[in-house]
Amino acid sequence: MIRSGICEAAIVASVNLCLNPFIIHLFLRLGVLSADGYCKPYDEEGAGYMRSDAAVVVYLQKARYARRIYATYVYGKANCDGFKEKGITFPSFDMQKILLEEFYEECGISPLKLSYMEAHTTGTLAGDATELQAIDEALCAKRDFPLLLGTVKSNIGHSEPVSGHCQIAKVLTAMETGIIPPTIHFKRPRKDMTAIIEGRVKIVTEPTELKGDYIGVSAFGFGGINCYILLKSNPKIKVNNGADDNLPRLVAISGRTEEGVKIILDDNDLRY
């Protein structure tokens, strides 16, 4: 709509709140939640995810109007695999591979330019191997160096309808800092993670320097929807004029406990 001139800008927001324990119980009975409460993508101990809260907002506008640019939206594409006898939670390798192949053919960007890919991976037995195989066959065949891969769900759990926005937030963080945040809880790959075992894909498990401009974001959903977008980092060096301009700054404070947040808020350096 922005590109066609229907609107000048868009605020895109999503929220997920885990307020009803009955819904969590349903997901547990469905077999997609981990027994220990941790999300361990690609790891041999991984067997599900934990649901999580999230609220994320993205602001989109044409570059020529933007006073601040974190990344450029290059291209996006989606498809759906339709009816499956196994059920709506099972992904389709064929449709995921087709999506990735068609995506890079249509956008005119070589997948060899990918610096990193933020995968949907949730830690489930069915989903992780399918997505990894599709990525391997569609994007890694002509690479002579490993594709860096990771997922924010290892850090914050699966926020479901907000998970794609969380992935974008992580990618923008990597672009702004120049460091890819690590995927945690990964120690040993499962036996069906062939691309990792054979070295065509490397999971980012330590803070890693981001080299290059392009990052892909892969996201799926119940019912067979597959989505993929490509973002390009803004190479312009940001200039911060400091605190002398008297402009207010938004500071987000977060912690696992109320006590932890209070310690940060009481820090004199932060307060003044």
Describe the structure.
With about 270 residues, the chain is α/β, with parallel strands linked by helices. It folds into two domains: about 10-235, 3-Layer(aba) Sandwich (Peroxisomal Thiolase, Chain A, domain 1); about 240-270, no CATH class. It is about 30% helix and about 20% strand. The chain is built from eight helices and ten strands. It has helices spanning about 20-30, 95-105, 125-140, 155, 165-175, 195, 260-265, 270, and strands at about 10-15, 55-60, 70-80, 115-120, 145-150, 180, 200-205, 210, 215-220, 225-235. The strands form three sheets. Strands 3-10-9-4-5-7 form a six-stranded mixed sheet, sandwiched between helices. Strand 9 and strand 10 (about 225-235) form a beta hairpin. It is globular and about 60 Å long. The mean pLDDT is about 90. This is Fatty acid synthase. Belongs to the thiolase-like superfamily. Beta-ketoacyl-ACP synthases family. It comes from Lasius niger (Black garden ant).
